[in-house]
Design brief:
CATH architecture of the largest domain: Sandwich
Largest sheet: 6 strands, antiparallel
Strand content: 35-45%
Shape: rod-shaped
CATH superfamily of the largest domain: Galactose-binding lectin
CATH topology of the largest domain: Jelly Rolls
Length: about 575
């Protein structure tokens, strides 16, 4: 950029800012116009004097410095004073401008025209493609690694961006060639040397946050947000600021940068959620940029902000697109660990143990349960741990509060069909579906899905039920017994004459007897009939022939169930056989 344009911007924009930032005002800058004196410039090699001569007139308007060559050997030049030392990064990508004249350029040697030395003892040299004339010749030399600079000599390597910036960040020596005639004495002059490169950016002006070198740190916080600079932050520049980029290093998806406010001289863009770019729209001062930076806040929008230190980088670019400075804000964010959300669950009594903390959703490790689970740790075992409410407690950490959530565990209980039952013969036993259980599907052992099972026969009857969470089964046994006695009726006469009427005789029972024995005797006491079959008739035979008519005695014994136990019966009597 031509010197006149740089000077205009310097005067019209920076001057306003200087009044706003009196604590850091530095009007001299890296410029020499030689209006009042030689400004401490010196000369080297075979110059006639160590101190440059000053003339109040004859410059490219106004005063200038000049020197005579003694022609004793070497190539003399003008050596800049201390104000051109130190951090000149503000000029990176812009121009070194100066006006020079010589009274003889007819036999120059191959020596370079400009030399800069700086950080890491790097020496940068530059050779102009044209020579100065006897009248004033203006030069604009771009201060960037790809503009023709070399390391050490004119045949040296091209510097890298890092090497070039290292030199500009701490300039220790600045020299401009004054001699362009190597065969005898000559005279040269210099005027209007300008870097316009001073700037200052400090995110914590008084270093109260504990960080130096222009950086800033907030106190550890429990919340996922924080400012990126202190209220006493400093920003000023002798050259126009082109843009400032603010972004989170190694950003996560939840990292965001937010700016609150209206800044009419700046274009504010978000290339990414974690990055803000402040761009000069043409009239922005350093103070405009400073106000915008102070309005920026970092936010972690995650439900659970991660713990750790966020590093926010603030990068300053001048109007020549030179990256002239980086500063850092460190935000130690250690949110409280979360116990998660309250939860409830229903499990089956036969279920396997489960990891209870999973049910709390987004809970952090490091808490403890009250009451404790039987196995310790985070595993609930339905076969050992009772149903109830369990608290998951995160203790207080750092300066942040603790947290507690609650897990309610219900253990679904199986149903009970009831005890086994014994019924009287002929009774019907009705078994309904059990109440107090949320039934979704069920099936009886007979394959039916009745709401009530009616039992009429002895046996084992089962029911399988499915709830929303569990499957249960139960069964009962139904037994039947006689609830009545088992008496017998004995006819007292019969006529075995084969007329089909009353031909046989036996006892008639109301049940089917066990251990039955019937005996019939004649009048002399001889046994004429015996049977163990309660349904077998006596047809009047005695010793394989028809017995005579008459009266016969009998006796019978048997047992029969009565309320589940055997009961013995005995009867005797007589029966008349009629022919």
């Amino acid at each position: 950029m031509p010197f006149s344009a740089l000077l205009s911007r310097y005067i019209t924009r920076s001057s306003v800012l200087f009044f706003l930032l009196l604590s850091v005002v530095r009007l001299s800058g890296q410029s020499s116009f030689f209006t009042f004196d030689n400004e401490d410039w010196t000369c080297n090699a075979d110059a006639e004097s160590i101190n440059a001569y000053w003339s109040p007139t004859g410059g490219n308007t106004g005063g200038h410095i000049w020197m005579n060559d003694e022609s004793t050997g070497g190539t003399w030049g003008f050596v800049a004073p201390a104000k051109f030392h130190g951090n000149l990064m503000g000029a990176y990508g812009c121009y070194l401008s100066y006006d020079i004249r010589t009274d003889n350029n007819t036999n120059p040697n191959s020596t370079y025209h400009v030399e800069l030395r700086g950080g890491n003892n790097i020496k940068l040299v530059y050779n102009n493609s044209i020579l100065p004339q006897n009248n004033w010749t203006h030069f604009d030399i771009k201060l960037k690694e790809d503009a023709g600079w070399r390391i050490g000599t004119l045949n040296g390597a091209v510097p890298t961006a890092a090497q070039f910036q290292s030199v500009l960040s701490n300039v220790t020596y600045f020299w401009i060639r004054g001699e362009f005639y190597s065969q005898g004495e000559d005279q040269g002059g210099l005027d209007r040397v300008t870097f316009f490169g001073q700037f200052d950016i400090d995110l914590d002006g008084d270093n109260s946050s504990g960080e130096s070198n222009g950086n800033f740190r907030i106190d550890s916080t429990c919340f996922g947000l924080g400012k990126i600079c202190d209220s006493d932050a400093i920003l000023w520049s002798e050259t126009t600021i082109g843009r400032i980029e603010i972004f989170v290093q190694n950003a996560a998806n939840s990292d965001t940068m937010v700016i609150n406010g209206n800044f009419p001289n700046l274009s504010i863009t978000h290339p990414e959620p974690h990055k803000i770019v402040l761009t000069n729209t043409g009239n922005a001062s350093a103070f405009d940029f400073l106000q915008a930076i102070q309005a920026i806040e970092y936010q972690d929008i995650a439900i659970k902000p991660r713990s750790g230190i966020r590093t926010i980088e603030v990068v300053l670019y001048n109007e020549c697109e030179g990256k002239v400075a980086s500063r850092f804000a460190y935000l130690p964010i250690f949110p409280p660990r979360l116990a998660g959300n309250n939860a409830d669950t229903t499990v089956c009594p036969y279920s396997d143990e489960f990891f209870a903390r999973d049910l709390l959703y987004l809970s952090d490790a490091g808490g403890y349960w009250r009451p404790e689970f039987s196995g310790g740790g985070n595993f609930f075992n339905p076969q050992e741990d009772p149903a109830g409410v369990y608290a998951y407690i995160i203790p207080v950490g750092r300066e942040c509060e603790g947290d507690t959530s609650f897990l309610t565990v219900a253990i679904e209980q199986p149903f009970d069909l009831g005890v086994d039952s014994t019924l009287c013969n002929g009774e019907i036993y009705s078994v309904p579906l059990p109440s107090g259980i949320s039934i979704q599907r069920w099936k009886w052992s007979d394959g039916s899905s009745k709401t009530t099972l009616n039992i009429q026969e002895p046996g084992i009857y089962g029911l399988e039920i499915e709830t929303q969470n569990c499957t249960f089964a139960d069964s009962l046994e139904a037994r039947y017994w006689s609830c009545d006695e088992c008496p017998a009726y004995a006819p007292n006469v019969f006529s075995p004459n084969d007329d089909g009427k009353n031909d046989g005789w036996r006892l008639y029972h109301t049940c089917f007897p066990d251990n039955y024995q019937l005996e019939v005797y004649d009048r002399w006491g001889s046994l004429v009939f015996i049977t163990n079959d309660p349904e077998k008739n006596w047809y009047g035979f005695a010793r394989s022939r028809n017995a005579d008519a008459g009266v016969f005695g009998w006796q019978a014994r048997w047992t029969a169930e009565y309320y589940g136990k055997p009961r013995e019966y005995y009867m005797k009597g007589d029966v008349t056989l009629v022919r």
